[in-house]
Amino acid sequence: MKNTLNRLFIILLLSNCTKTSELTTEICKWQDDKKSAISITYDDGIINQFTVARPIMNALDFKATYFVITGKLNGSGKGKFIGRPISEIIAESAKIKTDSTNFFERASAIGFSGVANSIYYHTHAGSLFESGKIKEAYALIDDGYEKLRTGVPIISDEVIFHDNAIDTSTWDDYRNYAKEGHEIASHTVTHAKLAVLDEPNLLYELEQSKADIKHYLGDYYTFSAECPYGTENERAMQYAHKIYPALRNRMPETWLTELNRGNKENPGNANSEYVQWQRGPVNSINMATMKSWVDTCLVHDNVWLVLVFHGVDGVGWEPRTGAELKEYFEYMKAKEKDLWVATFGEVTKYLRERKTAQMRYF
Ligand SMILES: [Zn+2]
């Protein structure tokens, strides 16, 4: 849809050469020769991200990236278990304990057992597994299946924030937001823990989401994705990188250092050409700190600040108010002379095209 290279700002430098006069063309480090880039991203397709945050961004002419859970929308492929009948898996669990040979299948299936709150076992087994507590993850799945077999209710106070009934966006809505310049990108079909899905279910989460985005919005929007819970699980990343060119979770580029949300390192200490610096403005982060991230971008020339928002105005995980967003985005706008505010996909494409472009004229 858009060729970023067309918009590359070019600085012409005449360099002295002892043999011939050489004109070298250099592509700016950041578009329009800015000092750094900021991408404003929202996860989970929470309604107020579109109805509250989007108008604030539109008024400032800022474009966001929305990582949406496609299974929430009417007309999309829905969450489902792909495999043998779940009843068979449940019956088998009475005889065979959970181990490495059946864990992924069981962890994939339990969320679709039809029992209220059973998704708790999927997500918590996923968290245990990813933190290296493999035996505990197996034991939790055994516990969950025992409850399924014996009809013991599954008690969980977990708030499944990504399946909120008030998130009523439609594909028509997303198409309109895309027309405004926002990037709609994949956050999988159901927001599963990809690290504990077996292959057919892992592929379904990634491929069906991509197919629906392609069908309703077009190829341009199948570029970026975020695998849920910010996972960096090696196996999940291998699958996801084959399906989506850019993952906010992790990029393959050696010239890009990534400091993810939990990383306390100062991006100024990184020596690489680019640093993708992810920050999550959760409730415990005050406005002064949020603004200091923007200031940090202006004292280095290699920082790409990627902001990860979730809830807005009381809806969704760790919500920030519309007033806070307005104050924050206006702060960025005031410094826009030096900041390139663009979608995750646009910044990724610019950096990649710059790194691969050869522009040399003799
Ligand atoms: Zn999410």
What does this structure look like?
With 362 residues, the protein is of the alpha/beta class. The chain has a domain at 29-72 and 183-361: Glycoside hydrolase/deacetylase (TIM Barrel). It has 11 helices and 12 strands. The strands form 3 sheets. Strands 3, 4, 5, 8, 9, 10 and 11 form a 7-stranded parallel beta sheet that branches. The chain binds zinc ion. Zinc ion binds at residues 43-44, 162, 187, 191, 228.
Biggest pleated sheet: 7 strands, parallel
Element string (H = helix, E = strand)? EEEHEHHHHHEHEHEEEHEHEHE
Tell me, what is the CATH class of the domain at 29-72 and 183-361?
Alpha Beta
**What small ligands are held by the chains?**
zinc ion
Number of helices: 11
User: Per the principal axes of the C-alpha atoms, what is the gross shape?
Assistant: globular
Strand residue content: 15-25%
- Compute the CA-based radius of gyration: 23 Å
CATH superfamily of the domain at 29-72 and 183-361: Glycoside hydrolase/deacetylase
**Alpha-carbon distance between the two ends:** 32 Å
- CATH architecture tag of the domain at 29-72 and 183-361: Alpha-Beta Barrel
Which parts are unreliable, with pLDDT below 50 for 5 consecutive residues or more? Answer: 1-21
Number of strands: 12
**CATH topology of the domain at 29-72 and 183-361, what is it called?**
TIM Barrel
